[in-house]
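Incident log, structure service

09:12 report received: a user says their structure output differs between two submissions of the same chain.
09:20 pulled the input from the user's history:
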Amino acid sequence: MKAVTWQGKRNVSVDNVPDPTIQEPTDAIIRVTSTAICGSDLHLYEILGPYMAKGDILGHEPMGIVEEVGSAVTNLKVGDRVVIPFNISCGHCFMCTHGLQSQCETTQVHEHGSGAALLGYSSLYGSVPGGQAEYLRVPFADYGPVKVGSELPDERYLYLSDILPTAWQGVQYADVPKDGVLAVYGLGPVGQFVARIGRYLGHRVIAVEPVAERREMAERHGIETMDFTDGTVEELRSMTDGRGPDAVVDAVGMEAHGSPGGYFAQQAVGVLPDKLAQKVMETAGRDRVSVLHSAVDAVRRGGTLSLSGVYGGTATPMPLLTMFDKQIQVRMGQCNVRRWTDELLPIVEEPSDPLGVMDLMTHEVPIDDAPAAYENFQKKTDGTIKVVLKPQGLSV
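09:34 re-ran on a clean worker, output below:
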């Protein structure tokens, strides 16, 4: 089968690799009809190379048709149409039954002290082959896959695999009060959905984003937007009675613009041998924190900061004095996808499409075009906001 594989920093290719097979009785094999490139995939493309091996299959936002099921799978049958969550969870351990599927005790990667294994996301999360491929092996198939209808197009459902529940969790964690103001930093795919969910739940939403076409997309959904500048914090305060927003969601993460020190640290680690680079990242790794620090400054006293963007630096500096003085609550974490999918499924199926899931994809391309799509997404060129790959061809 064809699959998108990691070959080195800023280097992915489409290769022929062996088809996946049933390895455990709880597995299923799906034929992937749509699979997206996630902003988190760009961290593998740019920063997290020390945890990758040449030939690793990328991708953690797939959906498709069940082709085969293991002997212990009873909830799925051949021909079912399913969305596959990016985190691999068993559904019966303590963490799963407490709505913390991203911490699944059955699939935790103890070697690296990490939470639940993830599809296509480095040795940090289990080196599980990903979903940017024609076929995918799905572990714990009785629990993870979300069965969906056959009438609506893939893009109605695809984002349930990751970015839509990630955004939903980010807003839930933000705990915006009734009639409150939510600020969103970053209008990539997750930030777009965070902003729309905020509006859907009745909040005033102000989004901060330096890329004009991303602001324009958000404005189509009634979102107030502004550029990210040195005056962003004061502007947010001026729009909120001088206090700042009640809650802020950081939907950017470790590769924020405007952080030269963090950028230099990340690039320096990137030229080290993998084992040494891993050690440095695990003991002295730093992120680009311009957005994070701006969010801390902007949120009102007693407000909430919710982190949906991924951070990986163990030595990233945090303004704890300010956070303590302002009495800020902080919530964060990998999304617990299956906690939210039952709540979100009827919303994405509403005829009015209240979250605008059909207004996110900017590029739909065959899997062979994945290398160029990665480059455009990383460089934010060609108006790229969300890329959907079609492993079976554009007619699917």
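09:41 both user submissions now match this output. Likely a transient worker issue. Closing.
09:42 reviewer note: The chain has a mean pLDDT of 91. The CA atoms of residues 230 and 371 lie 34 Å apart.
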